[in-house]
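Journal club side-thread
Mid-discussion, someone asked how the predicted structure for our own chain would compare to the paper's figures. Pasting it here so we can look after the session.
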Amino acid sequence: MLWKKIPQNLSGSQFQRLTGVKKNTFEKMCFIIRTVKEQRRKHPKRGKQPTLGIEDQLLMMLMYHREYRTFLHIAMDYGISESQCHRIVTDLENILIQSNAFKLPGKKALTKSNVKWSVVVIDVGESPVERPKKNSEDIIQAKRKSIPTKPS
């Protein structure tokens, strides 16, 4: 559905800006998902074919992670239910995680880098502000002056 609307002649940088991954990575993800889903099927020629292709399902997952859209908004774009969108995204996440083909560097890799961090810490403390004290005598006198007295 949406996959067909994306021009196939996009440059690599435009495709990465749109999806968040490079074309090669996208194609590799599609290949892994397709092979795992084919292996899962007991009877490959039976049953209803899915309405969304692998590319659309992968775009849905990337859209969810890149744009922080809700499942409801994404489902409306694809014409499916919110729960079906959630099932597709979590299924693809699990397939890609279990494949071990794509990994982000962990905390240890970030600490081993040669980047030297310089941090400036600013201590901001509260300083008391002097305010006039409330005096009950001033309030009472002000009230007495404003209230007219009865002549006796």
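Post-session note: The chain has eight helices and no strands.
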